[in-house]
Amino acid sequence: MLHDGHNAEVATPLGPARSLARFTADLQYGDIPASAISRAKMLILDALGVGLASNAYDYAERAVAGAVALGGSGPCSVIGRSERLPVRDAALANGVLIHGLDFDDTHLTSIVHPTAACLPCALTFAESLKASGQSLLTAYAAGMEAAVRIGGSVKGGFHHVGFHATGVVAHFSSSIIASKLLGLPAERIVAAQGIAASTAAGIQVFLEEGAWTKRFHPGWAAVAGITAARLSENGFVGPSRPYEGKFGLFQTHLHEHAKDVDLSWMSDRLGEYWHFADTAIKPYPVCHFIHGCADAAIELHQEIDPEDIAEVEAFLPKETLHIIAEPANSKERPTSDYEAKFSAQFVVATCLIKGRFGLPELQADALADPQVRDLATRVRCQADPDTAFPKFFSGGVRVTTRDGRQLTRHVRVNSGAGERSLPLEGVVAKFMASASLAVSRSKAEEIRDAVLQLDTISVEQLANALRYDRRA
Question: Which of 92, 288, 399, 404 is the 20 to 30 A CA-CA neighbour of 3?
Answer without folding.
Answer: 288
